[in-house]
Write a structure and sequence with these properties.
single chain, alpha+beta, Uridine Diphospho-n-acetylenolpyruvylglucosamine Reductase, domain 3, Vanillyl-alcohol Oxidase, Chain A, domain 3, 6-stranded antiparallel sheet, 4-stranded antiparallel sheet, 10 strands, 29% helix, signal
Amino acid sequence: MAHNGVVIEMRSLMNCGNRINVSTTDLYVDVGGEQLWIDVLNATLQYGLTPKSWTDYLYLTVGGTLSNAGISGQSFLYGPQISNVYEMDVITGRGETVTCSKHKNSELFFGVMGGLGQFGIITRARIALQTAPQKVKWVRMLYDDFSVFTKDQEHLISINNNESGHNHGLDYVEGSLMIDIHLTSLNNWRSSSFYSKRDYREIISLATKNDGKSNIIYCLEVAKYYDDLTVNTIDEELELLFNGLSYAPGFKFTKDVSYVDFLNRVRSGELELQKKGLWEVPHPWLNLFVPKSRISEFDSEIFHGILGKSRSAGPILVYPTYRNK
């Protein structure tokens, strides 16, 4: 990606045999940098285990996301994927294979993490695991006021683990924008399988309720994991967590899905776009960290200003995390 640089196709290492090895005693998985996250998920689930932090899209390589950071709606709780790696094997610019961790060759370790491939090639990563849930309560709540939307997001991520390590809060918090409801919502691959046609009619009415024009709608998207032991209490837990939230009345939508289906939810959207011939096209992508003190200004200048005028149809995500993660 640099002038006169080199791009390495890591998938060729798939021919090197089994490179996903799970330790059920020490709760980690050793993974080749060329492995896709969907394959890591399927391998660890055979032992009832799972990595803690994910990206929204699982058909990416382990080495690829660790070279960037690996951010998603779990980052507020566990940090990005690079915060959940114990050690790595790295091929340096000198052609040497070096094992590194926080305590061994630490300068290389922290340079490679999120280093965009500039400090070495990740050929193996040891990733932390935890017990895998079985099911997910997947909830979307809609807002027409950005300040209320962000206030509720910040409140939800503030409900953290207690001293025992048990998470009494949510497992996933994200958010997205619907900028031009009439143009994008009905065919939006992120939403087409979530809302019914009747839901869309109501969402359009929310977006146009004040002046008849299509206004921005903000979607707060959350998930709470559960299993057979908590199936009878999950709804009550969510009601307590949602107490005091100020989403638009009547605009809360809930789905029950498997853990795998939730984590792999973007795949169905990809397959839809492939059928329409819209996947093998350029996908310009930009990630930004915006400080809390400037996020309202960002909404005004970027969402309502630049993007509102351009009538953007691409997915736009906005969600909070902590600096210390």
